[in-house]
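seq as requested:
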Amino acid sequence: MTDLHFRSATSLMRGLRQGEFSARDLLEHFLARIDRLNPSINAVILQDRPGARARADAADAARARGESLGALHGLPMTVKESYDVAGMPTTWGIPELRDNVVSQDALAVQRLTAAGANVFGKTNVPIRLADFQSYNAIYGTTGNPWNPERTPGGSSGGSAAALAAGLTGLEIGSDIGGSIRNPAHFCGVFGHKPTWNLCPMRGHALGGVLTPTDISVIGPLARSAYDLEMSLRLMAVPDVMEAPGLQVNLRGLHEPTSALRVAVWDSDPMCPSSDAVVKRVRAVAQTLADQGAAVSDTARPEFSPEHSHEIFNALLASAMSARMPDADFAAMVARAERASPQDRSPVAQQARWQTLRARDWVRLNESRTKLRWAWHRFFERHDVLITPIMPTSAFAHDHKAFGQRTIDIDGQQLPYFNQTFWAGLAGVSYLPATVIPGGQGPDGLPIGVQLIGPAYSDMRLIQLAQRLEALGFAFAAPPACA
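struct tokens:
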């Protein structure tokens, strides 16, 4: 039988309903795990133990009276530090915001707690949520439970690490450049990046900003694809301003696996995959082929990878620039104005993208819309695209300046941020993507595999992940966290 701390949230909820254990017992079990294991990985960086114990006792009392608090009645969980949780600081790892204690929960947190979840803590992030690693000057560095000398990913690195180490029952993160998906991959858990704006982000922004950030989404991470479905159904509800006229009705995966049309894109010159990653992507594709699915390794949407990646980089830089301090943005404006029109260096291009005029952004957005239509035509012929999410398994901590970092892909050194290529394919075009555990590489570290589908096919992707989970692509516990 699976250890309590490594069971899925779905299984834990079943145990709570059947009286196998109480909400207080389950909470204390996770807290004891944190006391024992968290010092070595530093995933959970804030806790409200007194409040969590009181809520657990209230959940047990309600159950004893025959009352149901909802689908997550009594489930202990943590959330990414970037979500507002009343009474806790929201800093995004920025030292100047160390004392930014908020008074209201983010909307997603409100929905999960309204369903009975007991949010007892927060998990670590990189500064401004802008890295494939999770470290900052406030809370320190988070290690990967499979090997603390490696990164757990970012920016939802603490989320994925806490799940993989068995420190929490469920997690939610956010994703603009792979920040749900690459930690899921590095830590061997499930993660889902929803269709853009499917899950309202209110309360996941600094300074009370209410406008959704371009490309950025919030979504669940978990030890099972069944937990992803349970979480997404709670999160994917229109906000109160849209609710009078909108409702969400996500279509499920009703046809047999043998009827699916599957495309595979396992490597690309823009970001070559390591041999270990290619093998795991192909293993997932072969498993679907063995189930009778039609699989193509040559089908591609009708655009060049270079064009898609450039549009993604430009719009990503523009979106992220809103998080820059005013002085830094002013310096970037000056840098862009100094650069000659002929200067196409990465530094000059980044400065231009981070300081786009509205007219230029609209033109880039039109290019993005053409990409979206190309994807639409592609998904008229295929149900799902299988890709990597990162080119390697988890790499060693690297805290050098961004410009000094590289990524080693089977001995080939590439620029650090080339790694956004696979995340950007889905991100720039607002597509949903699910990462599943694909197995382990020769280094013993987990490798995730990405499933991309058409807009609003979120539930179909998650239910395909459930089928693959049943076929062996499931969460495995890190040996050091037994």
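Residues 41 and 143 are 5 Å apart (CA to CA).
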